TrEMBL record:
TM regions (residue ranges): 485-506, 513-533, 553-571, 578-600, 696-719
UniProt KW keywords: Membrane, Transmembrane, Transmembrane helix
Transmembrane helix listed as a keyword: yes
Naturally occurring in which organism (per UniProt): Nostoc cycadae WK-1
Protein name in UniProt: Pentapeptide repeats family protein
Highest taxon of source: Bacteria
Length: 720
């Protein structure tokens, strides 16, 4: 009558029709193993296996008979298939393995050459883990302290340990375990397939070694699962697994890809001190409770895309050697990256990250964590950058908050440059589109589409039937998708681009004081040398007016020292030091050099030729902050009495030129040095006023930078 039932009912009825396993049936299946995927397998599928204490005689016979067949040395490995079966009572799977000693000198000879090579791989992993612990305390990684590793690495030839070796495949597809499951200290030489398996009680896989592919895809662990110190030599698939209680992978080792995609961790997840040698996939995972990656080692990419962290996640003292992808992830509580180690090219991709600084926190080392964050574009990520910046400002980590602001402005610079330099698809003519690479039909389709609604995103162009993916990939990087700009808007945007470029290159957008300090140092030394040159090297004939040898050597040594330390500050703090230096030289070299060349071309023929162009306030000497000072003395005769010419016959006179340059640029000096107002070549006055004008901009940049790098700084204290 089953043909009268719906298909789903028939499937459910078939699934529930399991055969109780008896000793006679077990002996029959053991005597007639089936061939599955080239491997001999004991077929115990779709059965009810009662291993409860009240059925003790059957339980003892079950283990004895299975152990006898599965542990046959030298024979072809025999697998075990428990798919679609129900296991009642505790399942002690480790008792089914061949218990064998592990020696430091050699693997037990009872195994085949292939199996011995697999067991030998355990020694290599132990050595690798030991090598990684050489520069760290031994407790950082758990593997060197495991029983089998201690045996394999022991120097004493008599030292040995034992391990349970499961030689054949283990298939647990849709198997239901009503009791506890124990596979501790078991070495699986073949694959383990536990897809859709259900574990109702605790499971113990501690110090298990999986030599081949292992799959727990879509399995359910209702109680605590223990994988402490386990080694996965091949790919490990935990996709869509549900861990409803504690999942403990403390000290495990994943040699190949580990896939936890779409898994669910309802309780605490422990991945402390785990070594991930290949890519690790936690995308679309939901962590409903705390998760710990403390002291973990990620050698390849860590994927956390669309993952949800509802409680705290800890990466304290973790080591990352490749980028971490948090694209679209949600951090709802706390993410702790304190004392984490990041390799040179490592970054945290936080594009589309869901993070509210008022409810959650991200912790990290001061001055380090802010540099790790990266987003692919400014569009759609301004809110996350703002929230991350606010997060670090609340923790008084101003350097990290400023680094995020710098990242934001760099992306804004890219956006502005693309808008100005690329072809705007919303305003380009049909001929321009054709010349760009579109066909006439495609260009016409674009014109018609933007007449209805302008393009805002690049992928909107793919909605046109005439645009294929190849054309999109070819031309996407040459198009912009912004509002069309009038001439005035284009000029304003170009000015914004220019100003933003200067701020980024010369001060890191007000986030790097030492970079701005280095820029100022280069300018001060350069202008100081120029002022000394025009004042002391005047002419060769008819009367020679040149500096002494000592003075020349002294000022060049001073110039070299100032430039060295200033350039050191630039190259240590600038992200692109050569661009920063090039930008600075374009500001300070062309105009002054042009003026000086013109000065020496036309010569100097004026009174007071043997008197310095520079004067100093002779009433007192002190370190002064002169915000309102101008570079030329006033006309009033009383000022001529106060301001006296520099004494060129003094050995320390060359210092005054650097003092004048310092006064002009940062309004700070040891003497109030200014230009005289009589018999002064206009070119020299122009040179001084040019530096003074740059000083107005520079002091503004310095004050702005200080206000952004020092919490709670009031700029007015600099103006008192």
């Amino acid at each position: 009558m089953s043909f009268l039932l719906p298909l789903s009912a028939v499937a459910a009825q078939t699934q529930l029709e399991r055969t109780p396993l008896t000793l006679e049936l077990l002996q029959e299946r053991l005597s007639k193993p089936i061939l599955r995927e080239g491997n001999l397998t004991v077929d115990l599928r779709e059965m009810v296996i009662d291993l409860r204490p009240e059925n003790g005689s059957f339980r003892d016979a079950f283990y004895q008979l299975l152990r006898k067949e599965l542990q046959k040395a030298g024979a072809k490995p025999l697998g075990l298939d428990l798919s679609y079966s129900v296991i009642q009572g505790d399942f002690i799977g480790s008792d089914l393995g061949l218990r064998t000693p592990l020696y430091a000198q050699a693997i037990a000879p009872i195994f085949t050459a292939t199996e011995q090579a697999q067991l030998e791989s355990l020694r290599l992993v132990c050595l690798q883990s030991l090598a990684m612990s050489n520069d760290k305390p031994l407790h950082v990684y758990a593997l060197p302290n495991s029983k089998d590793c201690r045996s394999l690495l022991a120097t004493d030839a008599n030292s040995s340990g034992e391990i349970n070796v499961f030689r054949g495949t283990l298939t647990l597809v849709n198997t239901r375990f009503n009791g506890q499951v124990h596979f501790l200290n078991t070495f699986f030489l073949q694959s383990v397939d536990a897809q859709n398996a259900t574990f109702l009680q605790t499971t113990n896989w501690s110090e298990a070694r999986f030599s081949r592919l292992v799959s727990f895809m879509n399995a359910t662990f209702r109680q605590a699962s223990n994988f402490q110190g386990s080694i996965f030599f091949d790919k490990a698939n935990f996709k869509q697994v549900q861990f409803q209680e504690i999942a403990d992978f403390y000290g495990s080792f994943f040699a190949q890809t580990a896939n936890f995609n779409q898994a669910l961790f309802k309780q605490l997840a422990k991945f402390n001190k785990v070594q991930w040698q290949s890519n690790t996939n936690f995308s679309d995972v939901r962590f409903a409770n705390q998760v710990q990656f403390t002291k973990a080692n990620f050698n390849q990419f860590l994927l956390l895309t669309e993952a949800t962290f509802e409680q705290a996640v800890s990466f304290r003292e973790a080591q990352f050697n490749q980028p971490i992808n948090l694209h679209g992830a949600s951090i709802l509580n706390l993410a702790d990256f304190s004392d984490a180690s990041f390799a040179k090219n490592t970054f945290l991709n936080v594009s589309g990250l869901s993070f509210n600084s008022n409810q959650a926190k991200i912790l990290g080392n001061l001055g380090q964590i802010g540099k790790m964050f990266c987003v692919t574009s400014l569009q759609g990520n301004q809110n996350i950058l703002r929230n991350l910046g606010q997060n670090f400002r609340q923790q008084q980590q101003i350097a990290d908050a400023n680094q995020l602001e710098y990242t934001k402005q760099r992306l804004r610079l890219i956006e502005l440059s693309q808008s100005l330099l690329r072809t705007n698809i919303n305003s380009a003519s049909i001929n321009r589109l054709i010349n760009l690479g579109f066909s006439a039909t495609q260009a016409d389709a674009i014109i018609k589409r933007r007449a209805i609604r302008m393009f805002r995103y690049s992928n909107e162009i793919l909605t046109l039937a005439d645009i294929d993916l190849e054309t999109y990939n070819k031309l996407n990087n040459r198009l912009s998708f912004t509002e069309p700009l009038a001439l005035g808007g284009w000029i304003l945007q170009a000015w914004s681009l220019f100003a933003l470029t200067l701020l980024l290159l010369l001060s890191g957008y007000g986030t790097n004081f030492w970079l701005a300090f280095g820029v100022g140092g280069v300018a001060i030394a350069y202008f100081g040398l120029l002022f000394w040159l025009v004042d002391r090297y005047r002419r060769l004939r008819p009367v020679v007016i040149i500096p002494t040898y000592y003075e020349t050597v002294s000022i060049l040594i001073g110039f070299s020292c100032l430039e060295f330390f200033s350039l050191l500050a630039i190259f240590r703090n600038a992200e692109q030091p050569w661009l920063t230096l090039g930008c600075l030289l374009l500001i300070i070299i062309p105009v002054p050099i042009t003026l000086i060349v013109r000065l020496y071309q036309q010569g100097r023929y004026h009174d007071l030729m043997d008197v310095s162009y520079f004067t100093e306030d002779g009433t007192f000497r002190q370190l002064r902050l002169l915000i309102g000072r101008l570079p030329v003395i006033p006309r009033n005769s009383t000022f001529r009495e106060r301001y006296m010419p520099l004494l060129s016959d003094r050995r320390w006179n060359w210092l005054n030129y650097y003092d004048f340059s310092l006064n002009n640029l940062v309004r700070l000096g040891f003497n109030d040095i200014r230009l005289r107002d009589q018999h002064l070549p206009g070119i020299i006055a122009t040179l001084a006023w040019y530096q003074w004008s740059l000083g107005v901009l520079y002091i503004t940049l310095i004050l702005w930078t200080l206000s952004r790098t020092i919490p709670g700084l009031n700029l007015l204290i600099y103006l008192k």
